[in-house]
Structures are given as C-alpha cells and as structure tokens.
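Section 3.1: Structural characterization of target chains.
Under the original work plan, the team committed to producing a structural model for every single-chain target entering the pipeline before any wet-lab resources were allocated. The record below documents one such target. The sequence was received from the expression subgroup and is listed exactly as submitted; it comprises 405 residues.
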Amino acid sequence: MAPVSNTVVGIDDDQRFALMKFRRSVKDILKPEHGDHFLLRWLRARQWNPEAAEKMLRDSMKWREKWGVDTTLASWQAPEVLETHFPSGSTGFDKEGSPVIIVPFIGLDIWGLLHSVSRSDLIRMIIRHLENYLAIARKQTITHGPNASKMTVIFDLEGFNIRQYAWKPAAELVFTLLQIYEANYPEILKICFIVNAPKVFSLAFSVVKKFMHEYTISKIRIFGSDAKKWQEQILTVIDKDQLPVHFGGTMVDENGDPRCSTLVKPGGKVPKKYYARNVAAESTKEYTKVTVKTGEKHIVDLLCSEDDSVLKWEFGVDSHDIKFSILKKDEDGNESIVHGPRKVSEGPVDVGVLPVSGPATYSVVFDNKSSFLRNKKIYYDILITIPTRDLNINDSPEEIKTDEA
C-alpha cells in the first residue's frame, strides 16, 4: 500500500492539499509502488497544479503503453550491436544510496548505431536502461530512504565530437530523447557531472538546454579537462570504493582496468558489418566554395525571423587560416558580436551551433584582412533552422526503413 501524505516532510499546507487532490484524481492508474514521493515528482514539474500534473501523468501512462514499458520491454531482445556497442554502466551507489550511472561518450558512435538499427530500437534501449536503474533506486529506498530514489550520473565527454550531432538524424535523436525524458521522467536526477567537456560543448549545450526543464538544468555541473577539479566534486557525492580509478575512486574491474570496462561498457566504433543502411547511397554535403582575396572579407547574411532558432555551420580552409566571427544586427540596427572572432586553421572541418533569435540578421564573417600575401580558399555550409519545426521530434515508436544491402 502506498504511503499516505503525512509521511512527506518539507511541504506546506497548500502543497499537501494539492498532493491529496492529485492522488484522488489519479488513483485509477496508480500502482502499488507509486507512493507520495512518486506523485510529488509530477506535481513539482507542474508547479503544484494538480490538474496539470494529472494530465502530465496520464499522458505519460499512454506513452508507456505505446512503448510497452510495463509489458514487453523487459523481454525485448536488443539487436546485437546495441548489446556490444552502447556505452554505459553502473559501478555502485552514491553516499545516499542512489545508483551511479556512467556514460563514456568517447564510445558513442551515433553515426554507426543509427546506420545499424532503427531509431526506435536505440530509444528502446535507452528507456530500458533508465527503467532498470529506476527499479534499482526504488529498492534502495527501502533501506536508504527517499533520497536514494533519484540517480547520480557522470557523462565523460572525452573525445566529444560535435560534428556527429550536427548530422540531422543524430540531432533528431537527441531532441526526441530530451522530450521523452522531460515528459516522462520528471525529477529523477539528483546530480549530473559532465566532465572533460571541450569548449565547443558549451555551444551545443546552449542549444539543447532550451528543451530542458529548469529543474534538470539546475542539477547539471559542467567541468573541463582538469581532473583534479571534477574528481574533487564527484567525491563529495560518491565514495571512492564506488567509483572507478579513472574518475577519482579506487575501483578497478577484474582485469585491473581503471575505467571498469566490464561494468561500464565502453561502446566503440561500430563495425560496418552491422550497417543496415547503404552509407554510400546517402547524399554527400554540397559546400559553397569561395576564394577570399587578400585584405578582404566574405560575409554570409542570414535572416532569423523567429525565436528558438539555431544557426549551424560547417566550414573549412584549404590552407593557412582565416578569422571567423558572427555578428547580430537587430531591428533597430544595433550590431553586436555573438561569436568570435577567432582564427580557424586548415585541418578538420569547423562545426558549431549557436542559439539565435529574431527578428534579426546574423552575419557570418570570414575575414582575410590581416593577410597581405595570400588569398584563402574556404568552403562552407551555413543555415538557420528551427529544431521544433525542421526536425522529426517524435516520441512514438516507429521503425525506420532501411535500404537493402
């Protein structure tokens, strides 16, 4: 039997009344494990509005039915490539008894996975992992109390490559997962450490956080590559004997691996033998090619008409370097620099995203004014897009048709 509302501490009389009203309105769909702490997650996510919380919970129950979360998911057989190449795992519990989840991003080959399985299967795999961790957390609350009901997460962004996520199917997957998480798993995150984050990650995060609830954002801590700083913070939450050596703990696996790869699957590049889609048949990107003469600039003007838009770029320099910046001019003609200036040298394609809003004009500037001897050949693909309009963000299971080999 679920506990009654007087077992909950830290809420005022109005909130307690909202909880009682909410519980009565959804009693027909509650399960034995759905106690007051479960109900509070939905109420808080809807600012203590019982009617809004009821709609959110009922919508989520319909979503769970569509995906078979409480029926077929447990017996679903994941494709082999997901079992072997999906990076994640757990090494124990934090100081309050919550599961510790570790995701090594260096092993997430999103291109390879989405060429090997349907998007639905990849989402199904992530849902199953999440549900398994939540089941563990529920068991932990029996001995550790309600503080163990949430999850502590470490995302290791060593090797993060933003270009993977500029690919449209990958971007669609990210935004779909964010939508699923925020709509169906409110307030399950205790804290999330994002470590080894490269500078370019801040650009990506500034875009995706627009799809996150304020509660989720408040639980995220982002660190660069200074291990001393982030290990110190992680160890305030997790004891060393529950944490791999790589993250500042004392754990190694049976092979002596400081990353505990037998517990935290490392993923890795997906072999092409798993590919179900014909990669060669996919259209290659057509870049605009321009020569910027000595002492001159090449400017690409883009009109942004709506808020919640994103400016995306990919560009490269054939030789030497060029100065790159992005300017914004608003309706009143006020101009400001919103990115850069910075020098970009020949080598890998420079990829980035920037949240933009309108009405305004954004000018992407390739500046060769400081060069008096060399013309610079550049190639680029630049556009402004609205993720909610231009991406297929769909939280329903639907198989993606694959090409014949």
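The mean pLDDT is 90.
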